Structure formats: structure tokens, C-alpha cells
Amino acid sequence: MDLQTLKQRFGIIGNSPALNYALSVADRVAPTNLSVLITGESGVGKEIFSQILHQLSPRKHNPFIAVNCGAIPEGTIDSELFGHEKGSFTGAGEKRKGYFESVDGGTIFLDEIGEMPLGTQARLLRVLESGEFIKVGSSVSQKTDVRVVAATNVNLMESVQKGKFREDLYYRLSTVPIEIPSLRDRGEDIYLLFRKFCIDFSEKNKTPIIQLDDDARRLLLKYNWPGNVRQLKNIAEQISVLAKDKIVYADEFIRFIPDFTVSKTPAVMDFSDGNTNNGGGNNFSERELLYKMLFDIKKDVNDLKQYMLSMGTTAPLVSAYNSGDIGQGQAYYPSSPVIRHDEHSSTVQSGSQPIILAEKSHYQSAETIDESLSIEDKEKELILRALKKHKGKRKNAANDLGISERTLYRKIKEYGIDD
Ligand SMILES: Nc1ncnc2c1ncn2[C@@H]1O[C@H](COP(=O)(O)OP(=O)(O)OP(=O)(O)O)[C@@H](O)[C@H]1O
Ligand SMILES: [Mg+2]
Predict the structure, then answer these.
(1) CA nearest ligand 1 atom 25, residue
(2) CA-wise closest residue to 75 among 97, 90, 95
(3) Percent of the chain at pLDDT exceeding 70
(4) Is the pTM of this model over 0.70?
């Protein structure tokens, strides 16, 4: 199938060479029975690729099932995938078919394969090599014909090195790897996608299509899009709902972008001589960045002042700030442990460096404040904050917390968090 037709059929927008290459590999491998490992950051479109692989295969009339390995509790994943015999474990009432049995002839998409427990990995390897599996609690092996497509947004080779992922399974799965590029590496696609999402939104909601002016458009291209296409879609929709006017200018646009970290201009700011330094030509965008940075710094300082005042302490930080001791060239740590920020107060970065404002030692006195230091309380609080920040989306909250989705589920239960 030619690429244009493929894109139209699956609603894929973009024309960057890396995306086109990934699509052409998918197109070629789809009709075979080979296992495919789809890699790429969160939100790049891995799920659509799993659909392409199934729909363009002779299995297309047979079942397709997507299983999120990170969301199934460790104790039940074997039974979900391979089934169980009656009474094989506590709670295993009736005999049950697993997906590898019920999807016979079709495709299983194993999403977040890096989260699969080692025991399940061994069973998967066996089914990939011999087409055979054994139900939990049984000793009889059964045959099945299932094509496996797996996806991950973690570096599986690193997981192999840490002993969390079987090396033999890694090689078995990645017979044909498909790497989906991150959005920041697909510069030419960013605007195309943004337009598409704005047009879709306006059609769905019968609203005018919003448009970015040139400076806002430049900012759109400079942002590093850590959440990739998913994040771009969310922001396009937010702007479509909330923009004051049909034309969106840079100063309004930038308010929709969290943690404005740019990837393409590593030396955006040079505070040492007060100059912007980016080879010229983009001064307005840099001015916008500067506004944003200053705005965030001001907010952090205000938060800090408020905090000190609310504690009723003599506040060395505030006086240092007022007397001008804190200035350029000193380190500023907005996320000091006892200082609270809402999720929008961002760590503004210049390249990869934190913005430099005040010595950490200025904060030391604040750290003696009597607060609960129970690890459990802190953990619960962090989980609640992460859930709130991601509007209850556990997957994103888990990512942010640096734990697996399964661990998050367990902790939510453990702490009785009702989200
Ligand atoms: N090239 C594209 N054109 C149009 N929409 C896209 C494109 N790539 C991704 N999307 C959309 O972006 C969103 C995120 O994609 P998807 O769910 O496939 O991401 P993912 O790679 O599976 O992320 P995760 O690792 O977080 O599961 C979906 O709404 C998808 O339709
Ligand atoms: Mg996905």
C-alpha cells in the first residue's frame, strides 16, 4: 500500500522521513507472522501502529486484543493471558480461557511489555517459540496461532541489563523493530498535526478554527513536546476551547504550555551578560521565553515569600531577597522539599541548567520546620498530587511518580485512596 493511502486509512498525519520509514516497515511486515516490537516515547502513536499491523494482515478478520501489561496485577496476568484450571489458585472459581486461546488466529498487542513479570515472560517466550502454552494449574500444553505485537516506551535493553527483562525474549520479540520518532524529531509534522487537531475540534464542536500568529507558531515548533502527539492534541483542544479570539498570539499561546523547556535552542538564555543568544532571527520568540521564565521565577519567589510569612518565622530568605542578596549567578531550587508548588509552577530551564538565582543554603532554615516526616504520609500525599495533576489518569500519574502502573494501583488500594 502506498504511504499516502496508508496514512489516510489510519488517520495518520505527518510526512517526516523518520515517520515515513516507520510506516513503510509496518506496511512490509504486516502481512507476515513475525513478532514486532514497537518502541517510542509515550504518546507517539504506538497504538495506531499495532492496528496497522493487524488490519493489513491476513488475520484482519480474526480477533485483535490489546493488553496493557502494566495495568494487570502481577497475580492475575498469567491467568488473563493463558487461562487457568478450576481451583488452580484462590479465587479461580471456574476454568477460564486466556487471551492466547480466545484470540487464536488473530493478533495480541502486548502494550507496555517492559512491565511484564519475569514468570509471564517465560510463558510468553514459550508460546512464541513453539506456539504452545499451558493454562495456570494445568499440565497439558495447548496449541495456538497468535501473532504478537509488543510495544514499550522504556528502553528494554536497559531492563535486560537490570535483570528485569529476559534477553532471549527481547531478541525474539524484536525480530522486526519499529521505532516511532518523538514529535520533537519530526519538526515538520508539528504544525500539520496542530492544524489537524484544531480542525477536528472545530468540526466536532461547531466552533471557528483557531489560528496561531507567526510568533505563536514559532513557539509551537520550539517546544520540546515531552508528551508527544497526545500532548499536542490536548493543547490544541485546550486552546480551541479557551482562546479569547480566533487568532492566538504568542503571549496567550505560551500560557497553555506547561514547563516551557525548549529542545531546539540549547543556548536560549545567557544570564551572564544579559543577552539573548541564539544566533539571531528569532528574537521575538526568545523574548516570549524570557517573559515566561521571569513570570515563573516571580511566581516561585512569591510562593516562597507567602510560605515564609505563613510560617511566621524570621525569614532569612525573604530578607536576603529584599536586600538583593539573591541575584544572578546563584543556584535556585524551586522544588526544595518543604516548599509547595502547584503543578503549573515550572522549573524553567536554560539548556539543561536550572535557572540560577539563590544558594540552596538560604533554604536550609526552612527545612527544620516541624512537619510530618512519615514516609507513608509523604508517599500518599505525592500519589494524591500526581493523580490530581493528571486528572485521575493513573498511567500518567505513575509515569510522573516514576513507578509502574501496577505499583500505583497497589498503593492506591493500600492507602484507601478514592480517586
Ligand atoms: N501521526 C499521527 N497522526 C494523528 N494522530 C496521531 C498520530 N500519532 C499519534 N496520534 C494520536 O495521538 C494520541 C496518542 O497516540 P497513542 O495512544 O498511539 O500513543 P502511544 O505511543 O501508544 O503512547 P503510550 O506509550 O503513552 O501508550 C492518540 O490519540 C493518537 O490517535
Ligand atoms: Mg499506548
Answers:
(1) 42
(2) 90
(3) 73
(4) no
